[in-house]
Amino acid sequence: MGKGVRAVLVFGRDDGLARERADIISKQIAADLTDPFQVARPTAADIKEHPSIILDELSAISMMGGRRLVRIDGAGTESTEAVKLALDGAQGDGLLVMTAGDLKPSSSLRKTMEAAKNALAIACYEDNSRDLMGLVQSVLADAGLTATQDAVAYLVDNLGGDRLVSRGELEKLVLYKGKDSSPVTIADAEACVGDTAALGLNQIAEAVTGGNLQRLEKLLERSRTAGENAVAILRTVQNRMMRIHLARGHMEQGMSAGEAIGKLRPPVFFGERDRFQAEVNRWGTGRVEQALEILLEAELDCKTTGNPADVICARALLRLTKAAR
Asked: How many other β-carbons are positioned within 10 Å of the β-carbon of residue 122?
């Protein structure tokens, strides 16, 4: 990280990805992020009591030499004034690295960082299929492993949107393989990465589009107990509906259902093709569009009405599941 940069803010809905990127940046300054002589971690209480603490820490000379790192995780608006002091100060060459949640454009901390010439603000969003494929290949390559195409497709389809959770699942797969250097197979992937990766979100979507009411009720109860976010559930179902809608679009251009499914990227896992094809045939284009409208309306209600989000989500999904039957 160049010395012209005094502070970096990594923020977004994907807390795992934000922390991963913040760690990568931080390790350019301090190889050991637990080293108390080179790394300072002021708390929100410290900042409230001493607004100049960030500037003081950036200005301090590291006992071991080199630049000093100031790391703040879960930063919020309470840090804004202290950050402004640090950005305006000229003393020291330390680097401030902060992580934060999904800051709105109106957030004072985000606005301060985006406007400063000596600061960077990096937004992190949930992993999409391409991001997940890159993560799968990266983690396996670092472990000296390869994977079959079907195994990669399964992993991409079953890993969640949080980078930290996905990486943990892949590391579990690496430990499972041990000294076995043969390619990761679909059986290996299924043995290690399943319901825990995305907390059953993909399974919920499959139950909805497949009209499996009994399974949906069990999965919703499990996700509620696990504290899964209702909007994340709705978006996972939206993604599956959009894949069905895209396949229907190809069919309207003259393709068979099988040909249409073959055009989807990432590809449909071979073990799921028959079931997915049956769903594509079951859901007409108009019905899929109505389903997407219901899901979008439910997401909006979760964010704006103040009513219990898990109840809104469950009602919408039960309605769609009954329609699929």
From this structure: 16
